[in-house]
Amino acid sequence: MKITLELFGASREFSNKEYLEFFIKDQIEVKDLRNEIIHFLDENFKGNEKFKKIVERSAFCSEENNIIKDNYKITKDQKIGIIPPIGGG
Amino acid sequence: MFHAKVVDIKKEKIKLSNAEKFIASSKCGASIYFVGTVRDQNNNKKVTGMTYDSHDQMVIKSFEEIYKSSISKFKFDDQVVFIEHIKGHILLGEISILIAVACKHRDQAYELSRFFIEEIKKKTPIWKKEHYENEDSEWLEGNLIQSK
């Protein structure tokens, strides 16, 4: 299963692209995806603590543009957006 | 009446005249324009510009939800709201957000305008990256969206 993680705000620093892709064997919950992202940061940014903090403080949104909870199950290929702490205006 | 838009600075700018046309109503006796612009200092650093990032669909959804909650909260007979927020890189003094409201009375208009900007700060997925004189830049820390 492929999860395309759309990057916004400070999380855009995680990649030169607008997204990251995660290939996962089984269904997972959002909290597991959070761990996958942190694992990615450990491997690619030597565990950059600032980046990890962004992930820990972020919410996530579904393809339907709803904020999803940590126990939300991802069961098929889909896009998930990472929503770091916000501050418009 | 309600208007909400994310304005891509690569294509256009936010214009006060558009808001003025939209909120004009003979039913309303008070109009307030809240205009957010980029200022030249933050945390003792000299700012040269700002990049705004947004989740466009969620921004519009958030604006609509704030509008709906304003109706149920205030129950004003007539209210007109125009909101536009910029996306992309803008320079000092340029407009990042425009909230124009029209109501029957001035106290309503002040209250409604304040309500929108405070709710947007807390609920709308928009992010700011500040650019400094030394060509450094930094994403600003924002408010958490609760989801856990």
List its salient traits.
heterodimer; A: 89 residues; alpha+beta; Ubiquitin-like (UB roll); five-stranded mixed β-sheet; two-stranded antiparallel sheet; 2 helices; globular; B: 148 residues; Aldehyde Oxidoreductase, domain 3; 3 helices; 8 strands
Structure described in brief:
The complex is a heterodimer of chains A (89) and B (148). With 89 residues, chain A is of the alpha+beta class.
Description:
The complex is a heterodimer of chains A (89) and B (148). Chain A is α+β, with helices and mostly antiparallel strands. Chain A has a single domain, classed as Beta-grasp domain (Ubiquitin-like (UB roll), Roll). Chain A contains two helices and seven strands, in the order E-E-E-H-H-E-E-E-E. In chain A, the strands form two sheets. Chain A has a five-stranded mixed β-sheet with strand order 2-1-7-4-5, with helices on one face. In chain A, a hairpin with a 5-residue loop joins strand 4 and strand 5. In chain A, helix 1 runs antiparallel to helix 2. Chain A is globular. The N and C termini of chain A lie far apart (37 Å). Chain B is an alpha+beta fold and 148 residues long. Chain B has one domain: Molybdopterin biosynthesis MoaE subunit (Aldehyde Oxidoreductase, domain 3). Chain B contains three helices and eight strands, in the order E-H-E-E-E-H-E-E-H-E-E. Chain B starts with a strand and ends in a 9-residue tail after the last strand. Classes of the chains: A alpha+beta (89), B alpha+beta (148).
Arrangement of strands in the largest sheet of chain A: 2-1-7-4-5
Low-confidence runs of at least 5 consecutive residues of chain B: none
What fold name goes in the CATH topology slot of chain A? Answer: Ubiquitin-like (UB roll)
Main sheet record of chain A:
5 strands, mixed
Write the SSE topology.
The complex is a heterodimer of chains A (about 90) and B (about 150).
Chain A: E1 2-6, E2 19-23, E3 28-29, H1 30-44, H2 49-56, E4 59-61, E5 67-68, E6 73-74, E7 78-83
Parallel strand pairs in A: 1-7
Antiparallel strand pairs in A: 1-2, 3-6, 4-5, 4-7
Chain B: E1 2-8, H1 16-23, E2 30-37, E3 41-42, E4 45-54, H2 56-74, E5 79-91, E6 95-103, H3 106-123, E7 126-132, E8 137-139
Parallel strand pairs in B: 1-5
Antiparallel strand pairs in B: 2-6, 3-4, 4-5, 4-7, 5-6, 7-8
